[in-house]
Amino acid sequence: MTEQFTGNFTQQDPIPDEAIAAALEVLQSGRLHRYNLVGDAPGEVSLLEQEFAAQMGAKYCLAVASGGYALGCALRALGVGPGDKVLTNAFTLAPVPGAIASVGAEPVFVGVTEGLVIDLEDLAAKVGQADVLMLSHMRGHICDMDRLMEICDGTGVRVIEDCAHTMGAQWRGTASGRHGVMACYSTQTYKHVNSGEGGLILSDEDDLMARAILLSGSYMLYERHLARPPAAAFEKAKYVTPNVSGRMDHLRAAILRPQLRELERQVARWNALYRVVEAGLSGTPGLTVVARPEGESYVGSSIQFLLLDWSEAAVEEVLRRCGARGVELKWFGGAEPVAFTSRYDSWRYVQAEPMPASDRVLAGIVDMRLPLTFSEADCAVIARIIRAEVGAVYQGG
């Protein structure tokens, strides 16, 4: 009998009871706006910022309305504006070049390796074209951060880390997001903590975080922030920094705080699922399992594999056959963007140079979510289905 998977690839864990109770308390107060506080009460948002900064080993934190807003806010805080160029990954999602375009800047795409990380040789060749690199740890894959920072520090390029897929991950014991001058995280439903939408920005730089807080819409209420720079940093910026409102509210912060306390446990659960699928796919003819570097401590909330040098028709047939058996796969190689997936050349507002080596990799990337509602037994079934259908198409091709 042919196995069929019946799970749902978009069904997340329920919000924890503690988070629901905290959300109800906020709702009953009616005080959802982050600055609508009574007396010296810090409020859920400031507490979230303080706790996340401590958890990640950062000086300062700002909670905002979305991960995409966090990216744009970080760029503005660094002074990126119209006509500037910003280096970024060719393998990424639309909000990254979108954030760059939103401030009037131009993305300069850097290639992707078969390890699904930024191509450091290509970065070294292009690093002189811009003053900022927006580094996307796409789908949770972390490059050699020591070498990357050597390249960027040696040329004065400031790094913003997009950690939407690496909250809870590390590179050689350093938390993802702690190498660059600013780091941006997402709390959208499909990320590692879930508030529907939301974002967090970390930095140790006084001036950068002061500008980010003012940009987010603090008005002159920045002293109510617990994880903020000294007042002197705001004095230099408060009259010349525009308000581009994008604050997080107390409701989302209340939902997030209990989830962040469980992050380490959740990471272990994701990685257990990941290892089952990884083991099940290893050795499949025609399929390349992406190798994880020794220095990386990853969060396996999704898994990718490569069908390198397959025809478009053959890849689409694998997706069709797996889908018919209940396994939902996404492909980053299609000529047209579909749902969340796209290519660097999908965005017509960018004058992207052709990148044949990266095109070859992108044409083979197949992606799959691993929600925590799956069990290890589920993941074993999924791996068997993928292995069988890849094998059937490969042998038939």
What does this structure look like?
By secondary structure, the protein is an alpha/beta fold. The protein has helices spanning 17-29, 43-56, 67-77, 95-102, 120-126, 145-155, 206-215, 231-235, 250-261, 263-281, 312-324, 356-362, 376-396; strands spanning 60-64, 85-89, 106-110, 132-136, 158-162, 170-171, 174-175, 182-186, 199-203, 288-289, 296-297, 302-306, 330-331, 365-369. It folds into two domains: 17-261, Aspartate Aminotransferase, domain 2; 263-396, Aspartate Aminotransferase, domain 1 (Alpha-Beta Complex), CATH 3.90.1150. The chain has a seven-stranded mixed β-sheet with strand order 1-9-8-5-4-2-3, with helices on both faces. The protein has a four-stranded antiparallel β-sheet with strand order 10-12-14-13. A three-stranded antiparallel β-sheet has the order 7-6-11, with no helix packed on it. Helix 6 (145-155) links the parallel strand 4 (132-136) and strand 5. The longest helix has 21 residues, at 376-396. It is globular. The mean pLDDT is 96.
